[in-house]
Inverse folding.
């Protein structure tokens, strides 16, 4: 019981002190989980984090669920997960209440119009980062473009695109690997 | 259907299909605003700004904010719990049963196609943000559709973001200051 509470508390702290989530949370995770609580080694933690990136949902939440589960099973996962989302729920509800009440104020409107411009700039920088990390060959570029065109111009549902892209990735990899095996050393094509 | 049931279903779906972190939730949240009109695209953009400037993972923050806007504190709780439920179930299964999930070849193959597609979807979500930020729908001519002052502020902030890589909240405060100063 004590450790469940500690899991909740540690991940509450992690949720409270990480801005933006994703990679930004690694230093905080390391300090709480590895150095202070010794719940996992750094290597294990990076493993949890890597798997959390390949599973649906918010990476920070997934990492919390994973670490909690490894310590204390399903209940541990539950307490860690609730811990990491509690600060967001409290802070956002307070702020949302205030902001929605003032949303008709002319200065608030102008401020948010300016903030939108800043969000655009931040999003462009985020896309550049994701592009560098995720688009490394012609296949990836093609998939990204097709997904973009289908969603933007043909209003194809996001869910269908996500599922189709996963299947496509599988098929493409299996085909290129087969070709590589049957052609021996000449199987370099399809990688560039 | 009751709005609570809809919130549960839609945010559960978002949590299940938004793969690759918080930003991947944005295409789904924009689709929700179009489908149900729970909040406008402008409101969602404001929510993104608030979520980037407050602690916590951005995906959770935006979901909480959306839920709150739809139906108060209960909506916020429901949206957030629905968002994390699918990943909670999946991670529990993976952590308990599939020991080699991360190094599985099939998983890697799926992600080989998935990652760039998610990027494409995020770009589409960002075009929505650009449209509501820059395009003046009521303009009489093409040239008046974009406010040059806004465009200049965008280029300036983008330059700072790419060059200095400081905390997002600084750029958001800067954007707010420009917005009030130039009466956007």
């Amino acid at each position: 019981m004590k450790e469940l509470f500690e899991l909740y508390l540690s991940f509450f702290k992690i949720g409270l002190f990480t801005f933006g989530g994703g990679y930004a949370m690694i230093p905080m995770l390391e300090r709480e989980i590895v150095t202070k609580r010794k719940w996992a080694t750094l290597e294990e933690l990076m493993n949890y984090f890597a798997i959390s990136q390949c599973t649906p949902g918010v990476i920070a939440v997934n990492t919390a669920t994973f670490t909690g589960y490894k310590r204390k099973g399903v209940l541990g996962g539950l307490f860690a997960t609730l811990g990491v989302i509690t600060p967001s729920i409290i802070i956002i509800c307070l702020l949302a209440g205030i902001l929605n009440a003032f949303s008709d104020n002319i200065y608030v409107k102008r401020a948010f119009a300016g903030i939108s411009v800043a969000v655009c700039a931040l999003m462009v920088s985020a896309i550049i980062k994701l592009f560098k990390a995720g688009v490394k060959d012609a296949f990836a570029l093609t998939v990204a473009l097709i997904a973009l065109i289908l969603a933007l111009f043909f209003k194809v549902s996001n869910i269908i695109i996500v599922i189709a892209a996963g299947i496509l990735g599988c098929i493409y990899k299996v085909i290129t690997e087969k070709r590589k095996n049957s052609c021996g050393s000449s199987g370099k094509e399809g990688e560039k | 259907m009751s709005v609570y049931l809809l919130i549960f279903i839609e945010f559960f779906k978002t949590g299940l299909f938004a793969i690759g972190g918080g930003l991947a939730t944005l295409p789904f949240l924009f689709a929700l605003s179009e489908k149900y009109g729970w909040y406008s695209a402008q409101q969602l953009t404001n929510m993104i700004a608030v979520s980037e400037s407050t602690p916590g993972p951005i995906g959770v923050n935006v979901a909480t904010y959306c839920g709150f806007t739809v139906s108060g504190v209960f909506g916020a709780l429901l949206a957030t719990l629905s968002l994390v439920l699918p990943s909670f179930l999946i991670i529990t299964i993976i952590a308990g049963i599939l020991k080699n999930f991360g190094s599985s070849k099939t998983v890697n193959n799926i992600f080989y196609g998935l990652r760039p597609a998610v990027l494409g979807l995020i770009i589409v979500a960002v075009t929505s943000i650009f449209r509501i930020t820059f395009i003046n729908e009521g303009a009489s001519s093409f040239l008046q559709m974009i406010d040059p002052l806004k465009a200049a502020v965008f280029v300036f902030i983008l330059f700072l973001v790419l060059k200095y890589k400081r905390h997002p909240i600084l750029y958001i405060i800067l954007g707010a200051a420009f917005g009030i100063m130039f009466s956007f």
User: Anything to note?
Assistant: The two ends of chain A are 53 Å apart (CA to CA). Chain A has three domains: 2-101, 104-134, 135-192. Helices of chain A lie at 2-17, 26-36, 42-53, 59-101, 106-134, 138-153, 158-183. The first helix of chain A runs from residue 2 to 17.
